[in-house]
């Protein structure tokens, strides 16, 4: 199962948010507490939480499911009106920053301080991603989605190769599979957000999380950190070495092109979010169960970043509107996301939870081995970097993705890439 991902272009609509929003809230009726959810198959978990909440609380919570293709725009419209939701689904980072800047969201630090057991129930690196400028505005509501290096075990066996443990292994595998007539890495270059995953890991492994923390803090000169240039040079080397084949710019992820290359053995590896496992279960079940391997992104020799750090989408979050007429009830509802019933429902629905101590529950997952690998990867990560195009504000994220595409397509040099980002 997959947690929805929103692109920088979709979030860009938030920048248009007006400053004349008036008070009120509660959606269609102020006597009900409205919880906005992105409409998909995973919402059954939140429906269960609402049922339990309504049985125990004086407030009456209702879920409003909003179609995914219009979620961002409809939320923007609602937040600029008197019909704001009381609680709403979001992606953290840049997806809520405009609302925070206008004082529309309730800070959650006091609530967490008053409920230390609740605050301590989440994996720290995931909870951290719900902060804006050091203040907590989001509580995890769904599973975690780290970026993982997937590979085709049958293709590796035929080539006599082993999964990479170092960057030199990556380069050697590129040469090995090119000699075998297999594209080393599937890459959906037609959807350039897939390309940023490489830069995210490389910058983190080379310079540590501090490099991007400086950038996301608003210092555009952070792009001139030596780690960014070195990462861009490594990307250019991969491209020149044939790591992604010669047609990756036309391969689509949304249409399943990159995943199909991997499952059919035409590519050996694929760096992608953990939802890739579910994609293969749905589209190539035999491959997923028999030949789909997975491992962590390797360390970089001499790099300052901890090899256990991960990048991707820590989770999705619930935030609370500050002028909700049901503020106390909304804050109480947030605590249901760490309850045992909630976590068990997540696992049964194919999600990997963000709470601590969930190891035993993973045996009930539809894919226990993969769920355990993913959970331990996130649990043990000192730092979990939110995808760049979701962490940054839209006016930076959108052109950044364009510059990443230009780098991968050979339309700009690593030096030009750094200069362009520093100028944003």
TrEMBL record:
Keywords for the protein's UniProt record, in alphabetical order: Signal
This one is known as Xylobiose transport system substrate-binding protein
Q: Which PROSITE patterns does the UniProt record give? A: PROKAR_LIPOPROTEIN
Specify the species: Nocardiopsis algeriensis
Superkingdom of this protein's organism:
Bacteria
The signal peptide stretch is 1-23
Report the Pfam families cross-referenced here: SBP_bac_1 (PF01547)
